[in-house]
Structure of SufD family Fe-S cluster assembly protein:
Amino acid sequence: MNKITEMLLEMVSELSGVPKNAAYNIREDGGCAGRASTDNVRITSKTDEPGIDIRVLPGTKGETVYIPACVTHTGVRDLVYNDFYIGDGADITIVAGCGVHNEGEEEAQHNGVHRFFIGKDARVLYLEKHVGVGEGTGRRVINPQTWVRIDEGGYMKMDTTQIKGVDSTKRITRAELMKDARLVIREKLMTHGEQTAETDFSVDLTGEDSGCDLVSRSVARGSSHQVFRSVINGNTRCTGHSACDAIIMDEGAVSAIPELTAASVDAALIHEAAIGKIAGEQLTKLMTLGLTEQEAEQKIIEGFLK
Amino acid sequence: MNKITEMLLEMVSELSGVPKNAAYNIREDGGCAGRASTDNVRITSKTDEPGIDIRVLPGTKGETVYIPACVTHTGVRDLVYNDFYIGDGADITIVAGCGVHNEGEEEAQHNGVHRFFIGKDARVLYLEKHVGVGEGTGRRVINPQTWVRIDEGGYMKMDTTQIKGVDSTKRITRAELMKDARLVIREKLMTHGEQTAETDFSVDLTGEDSGCDLVSRSVARGSSHQVFRSVINGNTRCTGHSACDAIIMDEGAVSAIPELTAASVDAALIHEAAIGKIAGEQLTKLMTLGLTEQEAEQKIIEGFLK
C-alpha cells in the first residue's frame, strides 16, 4: 500500500492503515493492496471479471467490512465489479469509499459496479464516501453504480457522500424491493469549479408493503452543474418518498427530475424538490453574530450537508 | 348552430345560445356558427391557416370573450389556430371550452392551438373546459396546445378542466415570462374507463422577478392512465412552484414527472407531488354519517377537484 493510498484511506474510510479484526479488501490502482476475511465474511477474487465477491454468512451480526478503492496517479482507468451476498438475517456495515488522486495531466478514473443481494430480514448499512485530490490538471472521475435487490423483510441504508475534488461523476443506483423490504438513501453532494455531477436513482417497489425513502441534499458552487433524477415505481401496496434539496451559489446550476409512477391503487408516492440560494436572512443573522459573509455561508452549508 | 352544439356550449361555456354584448366566435365542426366583435375586441378570420385572430385593444377592461369549439359528429378531425393579442394594460376573461360529441364508430377529434401574446401589465383569465359526450364507440379526442408569452408586468391565470368523456388527450402548454410577469395554472383532470391523458407544461422564467405557480389535481379511475410532466426553467431571479396531486382508484395509473432547473443563483424553485388512493379514514368518517362507500368516494373526489 503506497503513501497516497494511505492518505486516501483515511479520507474515505477513516482508516489508519489496514483494519483490525475485520474483513477488508483494499483496491489500489486496479490491484489488491491487502485483504482479509473473517469466519463470517468471506472475500474472494472474481475469476471472470475484475473485482471481488463478498459473502456474509446468514445471521452474521455487528461486523464491519471495508472495501475502499483508491486511484493514486494520473492515467489510471479502473473498473471493478464487487458483488455482495448478504445472508438471511445478517446485520452488517459496509464501508466502501473511493479516493482518486491525480497529480498529472491525464484523466484518473474509478468505475465501481456494486451489486447487492440482500437476504431475508438482513440489514445493511452501506457507507460510501468519494473524494478527489491532487494538484494535477487531469480530471478526477468517479462513476459508482449500485444495484440492489432486497429480499423479504430486508433493509438497506445507503449513505453516499461526495464532498470535493471530483470533476465528473455519474452515480447510478437501481433497486428492487420484495415484500416488506425497505431502502433508505441519504445522498450528500457538493460540486465546485467546473465540476459536473449526475445522480440517477431508480427503485421498483415490487413486493407488498415495501418502501423507500430517498433524500438528496446538494450544493452547487462555482460554475458546477448537477442533475438529479429519481424514479420510483409503485407496483403494489407500498410507500415511496423522494426529496431533493439543492443550494445554488455563484454560477452553479441544478436540475431536479423526479418521476413517480403509481401502477397500483395501493401505492402511496410522494416527492418534493426545492432549489434555491441561501436565504438572505440566514446570512444576516449569522453576520450579526460576528461572522463574515463567507464564514456564515460556510456554516450554513455545513449544517445543510451534515 | 345545431342542437348538439347548443348542448355542448352549455356544458363547456355555461352559455344558452349566443352570448349577448360580448365578443365571441363559435366554432362548429371546423366552420363558424356565429361571431361578433365589440369596439374593444376584434375577431377576424385567418387567411393563411384555419382559425381566428382575437385582438384586444390596450386598456380594455372587464370584457369576456367566448371562443368555444364544438365537434358534433363522428369522423370530424378539426384543427384550429387561434391567436390572442392582448393589448397593454387590458384586463379580460377568455372562455375557451371544447366539446366533442361522437355518436358513431369513427374518431371525433379537436386539436386547438392557442397562442397568447400578452402585453405589458395586461391581465388574462383563461377558462378552458373540455368534455366528451355521445353514445358512439368512436373515440373522442381533444388535444389542446397553449403557447403563452407574457410581457413585462403581465399576468395570466389559466383554469383548465377535463371532467369526463374524453378518451385521449395530449395537453401541451408552453410559456415564456418576461420581467415581473406571472403565470398561474390550475388543472383539474378526471379520467375513467380506458382513457389516457398526458399533460405537459413547460415554463421559461426569463425575465427578472417573473414567477409561475402550476397546480394539477387529477383522479384516475377505471383502468385509465395519466402522465403529468412539468418543466420549470429559472433563468434569472424568479420563483417557480409546481404541484401535482393525484388520486388513483380501481386500476388507474398515474406518473408524475416534474423537472426543475435553476440556472441562476437567484432562481427559487419548488415542486411537490403526491399520488395515492383516498385515505381509508376519510371514507370511514363519511360512511359513519350515513353515506354508502360510493357516495363517500364521490363526495371526496368532488371536494378534491373543486
Observations:
- Residues 217 and 304 of chain A are 7 Å apart (CA to CA).
- Chain A touches chain B at residues 234, 246, 248-277 (CB under 8 Å).
- The radius of gyration of chain A is 20 Å.
- The mean pLDDT of chain A is 95.
